[in-house]
Amino acid sequence: MKYIAKSAFKQSNIMDKINKGCDGVEIQLLNPENEICLEKGYKIEKFLKDCNIVSIHTPLVAETDNNFNIETPCGKDGFIKSIELADKFSQFYGRRMNLVCHMDLSIKQQIELGIYEQTKEFLLENLEKYKNIDVNLENVTIRDMGVYDNVVLVKELNKENLWTTLDICHALMAQSATGHFTCEGKYENEYYEYETLEKAFEKNKDVCKWIHLNNATNEGEGYGVGKGHGSIFNPNNVNDVSTLLKALRFADSIGLEEICIEVREDNYLDSQNFLQTMNLCKALRNNEKEFKKFIA
Ligand SMILES: [Zn+2]
Q1: Mean pLDDT per 10-residue section of the chain, whose length is 296 residues
Q2: Ligand 1 centroid distance, CA of 243 (Å)
Q3: CA 172 to centroid of ligand 1, rounded, Å
Q4: Domain with 74 in it
Q5: 128 Cβ partners below 8 Å, 6+ apart?
Q6: Ligand 1 mean position, distance from CA 42 (Å)
Q7: Which residues have their alpha-adjacent CB atom under 5 A from ion ligand 1?
């Protein structure tokens, strides 16, 4: 298994994760046009060779753009800029590249707005144009989403370069009584207990290409940004270890060779959370017997 680290598109952040032993990086774009910040004298070619970018995450947006349902700051333009960047990386490395993005509106909302057909056409056009890019739609927990509308859309379009990203933290939040996380960072008290992690695996198993490995721990403050959202797996917590093992087994069962660790970091220049999660994954793999006691 290769461990991919999620990182900002900044040399210092990326190099910290490389130095901690990641096998590649998924870069999080804040703006699809933002340029990589390189130290003086450091050439972009040399940098890209050093850091092995395997995936790009398109930006998130708070405002809904009714022209397109993929979350980008500038609707279709943002998506196009992101996929163009993925294409450049793909050509530079001479291999396929992942593009991870969120759906902004549920299928139901899009049908009501009369834009679902446009969304599908737009996606199909780009999937056709960029056959070297795997577009992976991520599950979200916001607004009145069908929690796995991404799976529905991917199965409906049925293209060889359209897949899902299963975000473990979002899946955990989707089943939590207090975890309905809105874009505004509020928590709505809706109950999705039936959306278990097992169901998420079942729904995604035929269409999943990428996993965001992270945890959700509500310690009374909810799951908002900087709180229990994207937290680490505590090696001393039975539930956390059990969740992590389930995620790793799911990845194995669908033949994934890479897994993207997307935990919250307190210090991006010393990514201890990434390191701890990666080391726990390795320890679990090397000595699953010892951790068997954690499995419910
Ligand atoms: Zn994610």
Answers
A1: 94 94 92 67 82 87 44 64 91 96 80 86 95 94 69 96 95 65 48 73 97 84 62 89 93 97 92 95 81 56
A2: 16
A3: 12
A4: 2-294
A5: none
A6: 30
A7: 167, 212
Residue 16: which residues within 8 A CB-CB, separation 6 or more? 268, 269, 270, 271
45 CA from centroid of ligand 1 (Å): 28
183: which 2 tokens? 């874009």
Q: To which H or E segment does residue 216 belong? A: strand 215-216
- The Å distance, Cα 264 to ligand 1 centre, comes to 11
What are 77's two structure tokens?
């333009």
CATH of the domain at 190: 3.20.20.150
Say how many Å lie between the CA of residue 114 and the centre of ligand 1. Answer: 28
- Phi and psi for 260 in degrees, rounded to 5? -100, 115
pLDDT of residue 73: 43
- DSSP letter for 176, please: S
Cα distance between residue 73 and residue 58, in whole Å: 9
Q: Scanning the structure block, which residue is given the tokens 């509500």? A: 218
| 192 Cα: distance to centroid of ligand 1 (angstroms) | 19
DSSP secondary structure code for residue 103 in this structure: B
pTM exceeds cut of 0.70: yes
